[in-house]
C-alpha cells in the first residue's frame, strides 16, 4: 500500500541546509494501521506530508498505491489524493464557507460521484452530527469539527487515511471519542491508516509504530 | 471535471463573502456608468447631427468669401444661381446696435439677409411670423438675450449705423448656433437691401459675404463642389455642404465625447485598481481554503476556476449595475451639455454603448483581478499541515502568465485610449503617463516601508511604533493603498489644476491697468476726433494703432499657383488664403521680444521693407529671417524681406500683429484704426459707448469686461462639464479607498482583538490605527499632488502654452481632505474591533 525507501528531505533556508529527514524506510501493508511518533520537531509532519504527496522529497522513493510519487505532476498527485487518500488534520481544516454537509460532499463531487448528498448524510449520521448538516464550521465546537473532518476523510472511500495528530487540539475525553470514531470508521471501511501522534497510548493501539528522532528512525 | 461543479463551488464559497465581493466590485460601477452614458450620448449626438445637418447649414450649399466678390467670382456665383432652385445672400459683420429707448449699445453680429434663408430648418422667433415677414417689412430680428439685456421689446427701435429699425421679433433659435456661440456676439438679422443706407457696408472691418443655395432634391451637390473645387480655391471662396457640415460638426463633437470618454475611462481604471487590490486580499484569505481543496484532490486549475467564476459573476453584476446607472446618467448629459450643442439630443438607450460598456468593464475588471487571482494556481496543499499565518502562503513572483496579463492590460488601455484620442502618439503618452505615475507611487510605497523598517526611532512611544510598523509588517496594504489613493489624488488634483490654468488665462488678461475697451473700424479721418472725445470724457487713450489689411501673394517669389503645382516647395496653400491685418510702427512694445534678426524702425525710400513676423506665424508659413514675402495691399504689390521674428504675448490685452511693418512703407495705404482705453465701471462704459456710437455710427466697440464675463461663464460651464465627469473618478476614488481600508480591517481585526485581550486600551488602539492611516494618507496624497503638478505643468507648457502655478488652496484642500478621509475611514473601520467582544471576533473565520 505504502512503501517508503531511503527517503531524505532537506530544507534550504538561506545558506543553511537543514536535513529534516534522513534515509527513512518503512512499509505499511493494506489495511494495516501505523503510527508515526517522536518528539516535536523530529519530522513527523514532514514525513506524513511526503507520504501523502503533499511535498517533494530529495532522495529515495515513495510508492503509494502502486504509483511512484516522484513520477507524478501536481495534478497527478491531486488525482491520487482524490481517488485513494483521506486526510484528518490537527486543526480540522474545514472549508469555512461551506456547511458541514457540503464539506463532506466536496471530495465525492470532485470525483463526480452521483449520490454524493445521500452518502454524505449517511456519513454525518455515522459521526453523530446529522442534525448539524447545515451548520458552518464556525458554528461547531472543535470536537464536532473534527468529526465532520472524519466524515469528509472517509467520504471518497479512501484506500489510505493520513491523520496528523487528529486529537492534538482536543481535550482528553473528546479526543478519545474522536479516536474511537476514527478506529471504528477505519475498521468498517478496511482502510489503511497512518497517523502522527505524541500520544503513546494512541500509538499503541496501532499495529505498527514508526519512531522518529531528529529526522532518523530509531 | 464538470463546469457545473465549479460554479456550484464558486457559489457556495462566495456565501460568506458576497456583500464584500459586491462592495469590491462597486468600484467599477461608476467608471462603466460614465463610459456607457458618454458613448450612448455621443452616438445619439452623432445621429442628431446627421439627421439635422441640413438645418444646421440651412441650405444645400453655402459659399462664403472674406472680401467682396471679384468679377470672376460673381460669374461663378451667378452660374450657381442658375443651377439652383433658389438662393439667398447674406453679409455678416460685427457692428454696434443702439437701443434707442434706453440708450444701450452693444457689439452685435449683424446678418444682412436677402432671400428665403434658411431653406432647411427655421429661424425660430417670437412672434413666429416675424421670421417670414421681417425682410418685407424692413424690420429686424434681435437675439432674445439682447432684448433681455436692454429691456427692449418687439416694436422698439434699434439704430444700426445711420438707420433706425423696428424690432419685428425676438430671435429664439438660429440654425447651427449654440447658446455659447450666440452669447459672445448676439445676432441681429436685417434686410440686406437696407445695408447701403446704414452706411455700414463701407466698414473697414471685415464683412463676410455668404451665398446660400437650394438645389433640387437628389441634386449631386457634393459632386458639383468637387468639380468646381479648383475654381473655389483660386477665388478664395469657402464652401460648405450638408455632407461637409455633417462631417465637420460630427468630428468636433466626436472629439468632445471622446475626451469625456477618456475621463470616464480613467474612473474605470481607478476602479479596476481598487478591484485588483481587493481581490488581492480576498485571494490571500482564500489560500487556506485553496490548500484544503488541493489536499482533498482538487486540481490547481479547478481551484483557480472556482475563484475566476466568482470574479466573473460579480464583475458581471458590477458591469450590469454600471450600465443601468449609465443609462440614467445619459438622461442628464444632454441637459448638462445643452449650451454647447447645436442640436437637441434625445436620450435613447444605445445598445451598442451598453454592450461596449459591459465588454470593456468586464474585460478590464477581469484583467485586473487576474493578477492576484493567478496566485491561486500556485498554492501548495502542504499548507494544510502547518498552522501558519496567511503571509507564509505568499504569492509567487515572476509568474509568466502574470506578466502576460500585465502586458494585456497595457495593450488594452493603449488601444482603448487610441480610439478615444484618435492618435497613437497621444495614447502612448497617456499610457506612459499613467504607468509613470504608477511606478512613482509604487516606488514611494516601497521606499516608505524600507525607511520605516530601518529608521523608526526606538525612543518613540510603543503605540506609534506599532502603528508605523503595521505599514511594513506582513499583510500590509501599503503599496496598494498608496497607489490607489495616490492615483486618485493625482487625478483629482489634475482636474482642478487644469481648470485653474484655463481660468487663469482669462483673469490674467482682465487685470488692472490693462485696456478693457477696444474701439475699432475707426477711419483715419476720425481717429483724432475719437481720441479727443475719449480724453474729454477723462478716459485714457492707451493705444492707438493703425491697421492695414492685405493678402500674402508670394513666398520667396513662389505664388499660390506655384505652390499648388509643386508640392515639393514645402509651403502650404493655406498661407495665401486669408486676409492679414498688419500695422506699422517704429518702436516695439515691451511685450514684444525679438527672437531672431533685427528690428528696423524705418524703411528708407528705395529699400525693400524689412518686416517682422510673429515667430509662431513664421513657423506655420515655414519661413525664416531673410525669406521674401510679397503682399498685395489693396491693389498695390509690396515686396518685403523678413527682417526679424518676434515673440508675442497673445495673452495680453492689446492689439497684436502677425506682420509688423516699419515706418515708411504702408503709412499711406487705406487703413482703419484701433483705439484702446480703460473704463472704470459699467456706467462709464455705457455712457462712452453711447456717446461714441452717436457721433461715429460706423465705429465698433468691444467691451472686454463684458466679453470676459461671458468667457468666464463659458469656462464655468465647461468646468462644470469636466467636474461632472471628473466626479465619477472622484467618487470611484472614494469607493476604492473605503474598499481598500475595509479589507485591511479583516486582517487587522484579529490582531487588534489580541492586543485588547492583552490589555490595550481603546485609546492605544486608536493611536496605533491612526498613526498607520495618517502616514499612509499623507504620503499618498503628497505624492499624488506632486504627480499632478508635474502633469499639469507639462500640459500647461506644451498644450495650453500658459504658465502654471499650483493653487495653494487646492493643494491644502486635497492634502487635508484625502489624508483626513483616509484617517477617518481607517479609524471608522477599526471600530468594530473595539466594540465587539473579543470572543466573537476570534471565532469568526473570515
Ligand atoms: N519550510 C521549512 N523550512 C525550513 N525548515 C522547516 C520547514 N518546515 C519544517 N521545517 C523544520 O523541519 C523540522 C521538522 O518539522 P515537522 O513539522 O515535520 O516536525 P514535527 O515532528 O511534525 O513536529 P511537531 O510534533 O511539533 O508537529 C523542524 O525542525 C522544522 O523547523
Ligand atoms: Mg507536526
Automatic annotation (TrEMBL), chain A:
InterPro entries reported for this sequence: AAA+_ATPase, ABC_transporter-like_ATP-bd, ABC_transporter-like_CS, MacB-like_ATP-bd, P-loop_NTPase
Span of domain ABC transporter: 2-218
Superkingdom of the source species: Bacteria
Entry annotated with the keyword ATP-binding: yes
Keywords: ATP-binding, Nucleotide-binding, Translocase, Transport
Family to which this protein belongs: Belongs to the ABC transporter superfamily. Macrolide exporter (TC 3.A.1.122) family.
UniProt feature coiled coil, ranges: none
A GO molecular-function annotation: ATP binding
Protein's UniProt keywords contain ATP-binding: yes
GO cellular-component term (any): membrane protein complex
Originating organism: Olivibacter domesticus (Pseudosphingobacterium domesticum)
Official protein name in the record: Putative ABC transport system ATP-binding protein
Automatic annotation (TrEMBL), chain B:
Chief localisation class: membrane
Subcellular location: Cell membrane
Residues annotated as domain MacB-like periplasmic core: 24-201
Entry GO CC: plasma membrane
This protein's UniProt keywords: Cell membrane, Membrane, Transmembrane, Transmembrane helix
Keyword Phosphoprotein among UniProt keywords: no
InterPro entries on file: ABC3_permease_C (IPR003838), MacB_PCD (IPR025857), Membrane_comp_ABC_pdt (IPR038766)
Residues of the ABC3 transporter permease C-terminal domain: 262-381, 724-838
Transmembrane region(s): 21-42, 259-283, 304-329, 349-376, 404-421, 427-449, 479-502, 720-743, 773-800, 806-828
One Pfam family linked to the record: FtsX
Membrane topology field: Multi-pass membrane protein
Protein name, UniProt field: Putative ABC transport system permease protein
